## 1
Amino acid sequence: MSVQSAAADVDVDLRQLFASLARNWLRIGLVVLLATGLAFAFASLATRHYKAETQVEIAPRESIYTRPASNNNDTDKPILDEQGVATQVQIISSNEILKQVSQKLGLEKLPEFNEALDMSALSRALVLVGLKSDPMEIPTEERVLKKMHEKLNVYGVEKTRIIAVEFSSEDPKLAAAIPDAIAAAYIAGQGAAKLESNSAAADFLAPEIADLQRQVKDAEAKVAAYRAQSDLLMGGNNSVLATQQLSELSSELSKVRANRAAAEATADGVRRALQNGGSLDAVPEVLSSDLIQRLRERQVELRSNIADLSTTLLGNHPRIRALKSQLSDLDAQIRSEAQKIMKGLLMQAETAKARENQLVADVNTLKAASAQAGEQQVDLDALQRDATAKRQQLELYLTNYREAASRQDRNYLPVDARIASKASVPSEAYFPKVGPIVGAAFAASLLIMAIVTLLRELFSGRAMRPASGSRFERIDEVAMPHVAQTPAAKPFVRPEPAVFQEPFIHQELPEPAHEADAEPYAAAMQAMAEAPDVVAMPATAATEQTVVEPEPARSTLGEIDIERAAEKLISSGAARAIFVSPEGDEAAASAILVAREVADAGLRVLLLDLTASGAASRPMLDSGLFPGITNLLASEAQFSDVIHADLYSDCHVIPVGTADPVRAMRAADRLPIIMQSLTTAYDLVVVECGPADAQGIGRLTGDATEVFLSMLEADDEVTQAAVKLIENGYPDLTLVTPLGHEPPGNPVPGRRTAAA
């Protein structure tokens, strides 16, 4: 028989837990009212504090007409960044400014800021016993500054250059006067700082200007003396005279060389023309001569006359011969004149060469002078740069000094800050707020009392109840039921079946309470009593133990053994076999044996274990730690994760699983869908339901479904379960018993035989 866990888990009974709030409402209400009353008394009697705020804008105050010339290019730059504003915040809250405000307003004379002026008797007693420090030991100024820092709040408004000065006080007028005084002291301090800076600048610039004036005068004198000593006369274009002359001679030398080269080339061309007897018409200098042009005209005229006369006269005619003689003379004259031109060009080239030689000598002389002048010019430029730099610095200092002196004389020092908004006298105290304080006290006390009450109820154990998904100890196998035996000394007493809490289909089976139910109940009892395989238990004690063997005969209810049940399922082509075991775990062996029998016949069989203890699946898997139907219903696993192979047959099995049964029970409506999917994949799905009723197995049935009632002994419990199933729509109920079943003679190698 199965062994249940000795200790069951517990859950929190939320209804019982929150019902404790209603049971303790009086205590909760009294505590809440007391806390609310105390908060109201505190808010009503507490000293009123008022708060006022002054805003200071950090912005340039310099006019465009008075801005110094050196700052004209900085108009678009922000005067302060985020760090600059934070620096000004620290300056405003500094002790120096607070001291000025304290002295101006006489805060040391007020008990609010000087605790030593008005000490209560309780405070004096605490000081005497050493539980409180004596304020007289601290200087008055330090006490006042400490109180001012406690009541002062200076901060920069985000993404602006506005600084807010916030102050709280028991006097509303003082709360407005102090931040205004702090802002005024800050602006006055900034003005004083600018005045001090301006005066320091003027005092610094005055002697510096005097020194610079002497230095500039000395530097310029050095420049003039060096120029006179070095004879560095300046020509045009601000250059030394030697350098300028060298440039001019170089240009003239280039021209002379070009003219010489042109004359030589022309003379050479005329010479070649005369030597080779070529035409002189290609030489421009020859054609440009007036005499040659006239000779050419006369030559043309003679050739024209010879041509005219040749039409009427022969070539030996005296006139033609005379004209030809004149033409020859003209050619000789032209060549003679060309030779003269050539000689002139040669003379011109000689003259240009002589001029070129002279210019080269002059250029060389000027080169040496220019090099020396360049070296001297470097020294002179250095002296000039020094004098120029000092003069520029002097002019800058003079400009700044004039600006500083003019601002100092006219007392014009604009501060880059102004009071954007003055503090107004507050009419309403910011502390205490009666409504929020009382409301917060009410809500907090109510919440605390509710939490305390719930924790007391939880820790007392009154809000705990047994968990619905109790776990069972691991069992290796389910022992097959044996034939009943009667002891010799006393009548046989069958052990009571274990009580199960099946989360999916279990329902309690009540006894028949009406006469209408008594008749079928009695008929079922009579039919089962007549069955030959039912064990007859003697009413009196026996001297020897008697073993009653079951017979294969069947009663009118149709009890069959494992083999007959398997044959019935195979022959009928059933797709589902629902097993109900009112006697508990031992009777669940019928479903296991039938499933294995059908699987050995070659059909694809799956056993679905819906018992609370896993009595149908653990003998097939040797463990209860596999994921199963509860994991599938709780969406923690898929079909491939929950289907496992039987260790002793070809049957597949889906165990109970390891998920929370309560969570899985919420998805019990998915069982019909799961059953439909399994019947599609397998030839037969065997479901062990445990001690279920007709209503519980209703969601598991479908087309081609056979319902079996597994029994060990024909007692009232089995009879009652059979009657209920028949009355509730299952007239074809079949009783099956595992008693007398023997496992196959040749089990599969590597597997054990069915549990015995």
## 2
Amino acid sequence: MAAVPDPTGVNSGRDPAGVVTGRADAQGYAADWTRVVRRLGFVPLSVAETERLLLAHTLRLAQAVRTEPFSAHPAEEVGRALVEAQITEPQALEWTLRALGATFGRQVLGDGDRPADLADRVAAMQGGLAAGFARALRDRTFSQQERIARSAWQARDEVEQALRASEARFRAVFTGAAIGIGIAGVDGRIIDVNQAFADMLGYSIEELREINVAALFHADDAAGMWELYQEMIEGKHDAARVEKRYHRKDGTVVWTDLAVSLIRHEGRPRFTVAMIEDITERYELQQRLRFQALHDPLTGLPNRTLFFETLGRVLDTAGVGQQVGVCFLDLDGFKAINDSLGHDLGDRLLVMIGRRLAACVADNGHLVARMGGDEFVILVDGGDDTDDPVAVAEAALAAVAAPVHVGEHQLAVSASVGIVQCPASETSASELMKAADTTLYWAKAAGRGRWAVYDPERGARDIARSALVAGLPAALDRGEFVLHYQPIVSLLEGTMLAVEALVRWEHPELGLIGPDRFIGLAEETGLIVRLGEWVLRRACEDAERWWREFPDARLVVSVNLAARQADEPAIVDTVADALQTSGLPAELLQLELTESAVMGSAGEPLRSLHRLAALGVRLAVDDFGTGYSNLAYLRRLPIHCLKLAGPFVEGIRADGTDVAADHRDERIVDALVRLAHALELWVTAEAVETGVQAERLRALRCDTGQGRYFGAPAPADVITARLRGGGVSA
């Protein structure tokens, strides 16, 4: 709010005539006045603004008391000014008048400023201030009342004008609206309709005024619509909106979007107003779009969306013990047909297959859907013999296997089917289809034209396998892998010459897992390269500690090298870096490769083998004798050792169960040892389990043995303890 003007010269401490006014006393009086009026009521000014205003009024009253001839008119103006400043609280006025008579003269006027008739003048000023206050308050009240009355008359005029305008607009809208509008009584009798309503139903306006609303309802929804209408006129609903059909006068049907509102008068239902729009074309379009959304555009079969809707409905409504089955079918080699004969012919083939599948289950009413690509699914709803999913699958395979003539081509087509059947109450749509997909994979893996039935135990194993695959990268990052070492012992002297590094997974939930459960998974996912490098570096570190602590033992550490690792261009640099980082002499590291990896080496892998041998690293062929060995090729490879495959050694058991086979295995081992020695290669026999096997291998001049007879794979500290004991075989 703007600052209050100071025409009295209060800021200078003098009145307009230059006479000292006793400003300090006037300020104290004004401050007391300010505190009282702000405490007793609302004042739309700040504290400072209120105090400046009341100080000005105080000085004006003081000036009026001293002025000759005396007049109480300034006090009246002060009273009016208080009302204008919104200081209208009666208690504030009471305090003002009382203070004016009690303390004003003593506090505000100096001793030399008090006239002889001060008491009379103060009393006159009290009356003048009260009179001015009252007149101003009365004038303000009259003014407000006048404004209220004027506003009321103006509002009434505006309401009447708006009502007339509203009625005119409603009539214009009602008459010229493009949508139908109808008004009916609560008894259903039509009171009025517009031309659009009449045209939509094929009646004249006069004919419709003679008709009850119920007569227009479609036979299929009349009961429900009349019930809704009854609830509305009973006041249970104020509005409703539905899509419904009406009979036209000529008997045809029109689909409409109907919105009905209830009109009340004095709280009682009086009329209903209906607005209807012809949506026949839109409804038919929606039906076509829904069909397209729920059916495969190529084959016309239900698509995966409709299939899952139907499956969900079957599962939700199935009775106790009711079975539900799924046959998940995939064509064998369909990609080859597409690639060789073209996608157009492939599409025509899919159409024919879809028709055959639908026809073969048509009598039983099973749903056939196309899931996408060359995948189809049959929903078998029920549990009796006629609904046996296996029988359905065999019928589907037979239908698919019949020769197919597409254009000028006769095609022989087969399919694989995954079958799942279980109680509907024990599964969900997603679980059922996941199991069906898994089973289809089993059927395809077993060969073409087959079906497979879901096995929960096998499914659990597959899930566990998938969990291991997913957990491999994180396990390597978290350091969950450890190395165990299996001794490789001299068959002649019985001393430990080498150890083979074997990786184990310390799974946080499953415990210690052997390599047979995860090495194949690591090879499939490509993680074998990272894992193999970790094994190599850790084995070199452990071997370097043994070499440093037991230099006379010259213990060799043998590390398996996967085929994918051997194919890596950087394998030589990786091995060299592992040796340099650990400090292990190259001759104390042996790398084992499978026979197929070594014999299939060509180009860069073969050069890598020669470069590894040039580092001084020993190279061994693991599981020798199980592949298709090219002996002439083996002679040119930089190999140092052959490790005989376990099955040959297992045959030399001398337990009398199969003497002929035992002798054959012994002759094979003898031939392989002689061959290796002829090529100046070291020979290690794997899977030595008994002393008899060890003795017979020693007699065949096999160099070293490895197996549980010489020690099971164990942590590095067990090997350390064995070295401290002289490295003698157990």
